[in-house]
Design a protein that fits this description.
By secondary structure, this protein is mainly alpha-helical. The protein has a domain of about 60 residues. About 45% of the residues lie in helices and about 5% in strands. The protein is built from 5 helices and 2 strands, in the order ααβαααβ. A two-stranded antiparallel sheet has the order 1-2. The longest helix has 22 residues.
Amino acid sequence: MTAHLPLTDFIEYPQDEMLKRAQDNYQQVKRRHSIRSFSDRAVPQAIIEQCILAAGTAPNGANHQPWHFVAISRPEIKAQIRQQAEALEQAFYAGRAGEEWLTALKPLGTDANQPYLEHAPWLIAVF
């Protein structure tokens, strides 16, 4: 059995600071939106790697971080991913989705087309 290792970098903030930090975090989180429009501006691989490094630290039940990330920048691979994703989306819009879901999506103007999968400089798949 592995011995319990206490957290050595835990910071307990005063209550008023915790509230301020929670409010600031909420303001950031509520700005997040699902989008289907991405810049084609180049992003250095080092930035992608740093983001994946941060994502890989997300906690889980056994703290083993069992996920694997694949960063994809090759145009031919992104084209294959788009083709497969659009085939799945076509099935979704053609009947897999319920009417309520399709009605909720209608004002957003979404459809099975996903050109952003080739337009974005990187795709990151998580397994």
